[in-house]
Fold Urea ABC transporter ATP-binding protein UrtD.
Amino acid sequence: MSNPTDYLLAVEGLTVSFDGFKAVNDLSFYVDANEIHVIIGPNGAGKTTVLDLICGRTRASGGSIKFRNKELTAMKEHEIVKAGVGRKFQNPSIYDDLTVFENLEISFPRGRSVFGALAFKRDAEVRDRVAEIAEMIFLTDHLDQRAEYLSHGQKQWLEIGMLLIQDPELLMLDEPVAGMSVNERKKTAELLNKIIQNRSVLVIEHDMKFVEDIAHRVTVLHQGKILSEGSMERVKNDPKVVEVYLGH
Ligand SMILES: Nc1ncnc2c1ncn2[C@@H]1O[C@H](COP(=O)(O)OP(=O)(O)OP(=O)(O)O)[C@@H](O)[C@H]1O
């Protein structure tokens, strides 16, 4: 049996109560390095709350969340980001009046301020990194375009790029393909499969076709607890999952 310290993320006995209602109830699951892990489940199952707990936006009532063996439940949101956990919310938070280049540039992690020749070297480093990320998110030809003129899907990719430029080891995405075209959805799957070479991805998603394309492992949540877990193949043939979720 694997030791919890072998995982990139180990969630154990996680519980949160809102006025006595347990939105997440003694939940345990694990994310490996280089894994795409998808959480599915009916509305109100507690999926978004799980991401809120991991990123420190909501405080747990009990249990533990270990990321690279560091306890996250005791840390503040910005410390969790710094530890290497990036989170994308459902609505893109990009700057509409800035170009794609500028949106990526301002997301580049800032170190100490530097001067002269060093600053020059750093500018080149930022430009190279922006170019690298832009290619990854299919926006190389749009670098000088203002973000407001991008399609819905391109805006979602830009926000993923703004997280990627910070090089998180765990990237969490809440319904990344909602509202995307079939082609954009395919490219998003391609993007996620590419970026896990250096990180893990935890995704909440309702689009089952997309889940089939990306998931290494699926956790099905229902009323704050795990209903089923395993490969998509296994989960979608689980009568319990068909009954409460997929059959609808
Ligand atoms: N801050 C809060 N205060 C009180 N109740 C909350 C709070 N956040 C979430 N809840 C409740 O917890 C339950 C789980 O909500 P959550 O948004 O995590 O579900 P979800 O699985 O993400 O649903 P959806 O698929 O609709 O996004 C819901 O009943 C919700 O009303």
Notes: The pocket of adenosine-5'-triphosphate is lined by residues 18, 23, 41, 43-49 (CB under 6 Å). The first helix runs from residue 47 to 54. The two ends are 36 Å apart (CA to CA).
